[in-house]
Amino acid sequence: MNFRQGLGAAAVVGVLTLVPVTGLAQSSSVAPQSAATLAAQRQALSLMMKPMSVDYQQVRLEAVIKNIADVTGAPFVVLWQDDRNQLGLDKEAIITFGAVDQTALTVLEGALAQAGSATTGGGATWQMTEGGMIEIGPKERLNRTRRLEIYDISDLLLEIQDYNSVPQFDLNSALQSASSGGGGGSSPFSGGNQQNTLATGKTVQERADEVIRLVTEIVEPDQWTNNGGAAATVRFYKQQLLVTAPDYIQRQINGYPFWPSEQTNITQGKNSRSVTFLPGRSSRVVQTASVPSAPAASATSNANPNANPSTNATRPVTAPASTDTK
To answer: 259 or 189: whose pLDDT is higher?
Structure first.
C-alpha cells in the first residue's frame, strides 16, 4: 500500500508541501499479527472479491447481508441492534441499491452507506477481526476494538537543503586564463560565503505536525481525538507515527499488508481519502439467488423474518462467482 504516494498527491493540490516519495510506507504492529491471522484475513477479503449484479428494491438489510454471505461464503459478524445493544444495525432498514458486475465488497459498502445514515457515531462500515472475520456495524461500536500501528515517515520529513549563498563562475575569466597559458591566475569563482549558510526551514517536528494534520483531515476526520473524536489517536516519536485506531481507520491509512499493492486503489482529494480493494484476474461462473422484498406497508412490522419467502414478492439477483485461474 503506497501511503506516501497519497501524501505526494495531496502535496500537489496544496494541502501539504513535502518531497514526493514513491517508496512504500513501512508499518508494523506492536504485537505483529501471526501468519495464520493474515492468511485468514486474506481469505475472507478474497471471498468478497466475487462479482455480483444486484437490484435490491425495498429489501430488508438483514436479507441483503444474508444474500451477500450466501453468494460469497465470507465469514460475517454483524453487530445488530438487540435487547443488550441499542447501538447496532437495524435489521428492518430498507435498502434500495443496484450494481452491475461489482465486487461483493462494493455491494456491501453500498448497502451500509444507506443503512448507516440511520445510525449514530458516523455511519456504518466493516473491518477485519484478528480471527479473520468481517465485522459489520456502526463505526461507534466498531471503535471498541483498536490496535497500535507504527508508520515510518522519515523520508516524508526529508527537507532538501537550500543554499542561499553560492559562488559565481566567470566563464570569460576562465577562457582568458586558458588562452594565456593558464596557471597561477585568479580563480574563476567569485562571491559566496565559504560557510554557505543554509536557508532556515521548518523543524522536523513542524513537518511531522503537517503530516499528522493531513492524516487526521482526510482519514475519518471525526474519529480523531485531535478533532474532538474518541476513536483514534496519533503522535510523533523518533521519525515514526504511532497510530492507535480501529481496523477500518488503519486500512485507510496503509491498506492491508496481505493484499497486493497493484490490487489496491487510492482515491484522494483535498478533504477525503478512499482505499478500494480490487480483485485479481479471474474467470466467471454465473449464480442466481432470490432476495425477499420488504413486506408491504400494510403488513405488520412484527412479521417473522424467517417466514417462507414464497409469501413475499421476490426479485432475482444475479451473482457471478469468480474462480481463480492458475
So the answer is: 259
Residue 59 forms beta bridges with which residues? 95
Residue 198 pLDDT grade (very low, low, confident, very high; cuts 50, 70, 90): low
- Has residue 194 got a pLDDT over 60? no
Q: List alpha helices for the chain, DSSP H.
A: 3-12, 35-47, 61-72, 104-115, 139-142, 171-179, 204-218, 247-254
Predicted confidence at residue 181, as pLDDT, reads: 61
Q: Tell which phi-psi region holds residue 249, choosing left (phi > 0), alpha (psi between -120 and 50) or beta.
A: alpha
Grid cell at residue 106: 462494493
Joined grid coordinates for residue 221: 476526520
Alpha-carbon separation of residue 17 from 25, 52, 206 (angstroms): 18, 41, 12
Roughly how many angstroms between the first and final C-alpha of the chain, as a whole number?
Answer: 24
Beta strands 134-138 and 76-78 are parallel
Distance CA 255, CA 260 (A): 9
Q: Is the dihedral of CA 212, 214, 217, 220 positive or negative?
A: negative
